[in-house]
Amino acid sequence: MLERIRIVLIGTSHPGNIGAAARAMKTMGLEQLALVAPRGEGINPEAIARASGADDLLERATLHDTLEPALKDCQWVVGASARSRHLPWPLCSPREFSARLPGEMQHQSSTVALVFGREDKGLTNEELQRCHTHVHIPTSADYSSLNLAAAVQVLAYECRQAWLSTQSNTTDTLPGSAYPFGVEWDNPLANHADTERFFEHLERTLIDIGFHDPNNPRQLMARLRRLYMRSRMDVMELNMLRGILTRVDRLQNGHDRPSEPSDPVS
Amino acid sequence: MLERIRIVLIGTSHPGNIGAAARAMKTMGLEQLALVAPRGEGINPEAIARASGADDLLERATLHDTLEPALKDCQWVVGASARSRHLPWPLCSPREFSARLPGEMQHQSSTVALVFGREDKGLTNEELQRCHTHVHIPTSADYSSLNLAAAVQVLAYECRQAWLSTQSNTTDTLPGSAYPFGVEWDNPLANHADTERFFEHLERTLIDIGFHDPNNPRQLMARLRRLYMRSRMDVMELNMLRGILTRVDRLQNGHDRPSEPSDPVS
């Protein structure tokens, strides 16, 4: 799907922005770059430097005098628009764009174009009217000067999110929901029985060392339970905590009954 | 809300990236920039040029020798991490980060830090272990070289999405997003500085009682950090744990020097 999304840059002034846009695309798995009438030198050494290893996208970029040939095989043309125009046009947020994308690209032949305008004045009304939809990246009311490559980065990221959503549906492994911590863990989680034994041990030790008075418990054990329960301890963590408690028990026994050996004589 | 989100850049080499990060922040309404031990010139003319009108953020940026002071008043510290580490840590996607953010920031005093590492090698394990949560921006398996300012742009954009979601749903507080625990809490969450003091105390006590050998640390402290960090301790819980440690310290001192009274004679 991502290989059928085309980034179209119109009238770019700064070659560095073309390179940075290529880098932004490649990190998100996009491949197709089309340049329409760049106003500067186009792909020059600065563009290649800023591409930082994404120069294969620059090499394969297509160059056009006008917008039309860059769009001709596209089924959905989306223009990145900074400001609202006098003539209202179907508009979506980057999130809504992302949500629509998989459906728009379901046919294997579907190609989508994302069109970005000039650094200083964006897309003309004529260009905006070549688009099916406008997408507006919400920016601060006080400062909306989004860099061209940064705008490409945000929408390329939303393209990748859209693609990831199609991948996760197939095998039911939503990133972040597969495991309680959003990542494959190194140890199995502790089971209920072992967790309860830990709490018994913890309470006994806290009584022994004089920190906890079962006749005046306040909420001590309830609060400690809440703390440890919500961390979802794994088995190694639980064993470490029990090891610490055992060490404190030995200390306590030695302190209370210094003449009495707590371990069998070996 | 957005004014209480801090972008922390550690060991940045290229001043241009600092400027571009400031610009990315400002377009999304973020204001707080903290620089930790920049490796290059820091804020120089190139940084100001790339900030392109966001130079007020550069002027107000704080500069720190180490990470600690940049985090000390923060309740939620999130590290941008490119790769998975040998010790798994609670991880979220930028979307999940965005969904959690309004709840995390509901208290007017809550400050959140988003920490970004070096251009060439990201965050160290030690730095990553100062974080409650890691956030990973999904990138192409073939090319994951996300520019620093581009990464700031994506997460700043997700911060703004989070803020926009609070503006539109004035009455709709989604269960599970209202607070980190999905419910109004009884105590404020512990801040970074107090949490670090707890870990120092814990480590000292574990060394004193002979459970932890700093010359052969294995992953003990990292694992304990992970356990407590992901439970998001509140101030009362933290005080209880410190009280337990203090009790164990007294026991240990009494045990080591039995002739020395640990309490005043009554």
Question: What's the quick description here?
Answer:
2 copies of one chain form a homodimer. Chain A folds into 2 domains: 2-171, SPOUT methyltransferase, trefoil knot domain (Alpha/beta knot), CATH 3.40.1280; 192-256, Helicase, Ruva Protein, domain 3 (Orthogonal Bundle), CATH 1.10.8.590. The first copy, chain A, is built from 10 helices and 7 strands.
How would you sum up this structure, described in words?
Two copies of one chain form a homodimer. With 266 residues, chain A is of the alpha/beta class. Chain A contains ten helices and seven strands. In chain A, strands 3-2-1-6-4-7-5 form a seven-stranded parallel beta sheet. In chain A, strand 1, helix 1 (15-27) and strand 2 (32-36) form a beta-alpha-beta unit. The longest helix of chain A is centred in the middle third of the chain and has 24 residues, at 148-171. Chain A is elongated and about 85 Å long. The model of chain A is unreliable at 170-178 and 256-266 (pLDDT under 50). The interface between A and B is large, with 64 and 66 residues. Chains A, B: One of its GO terms (cellular component) is cytosol.
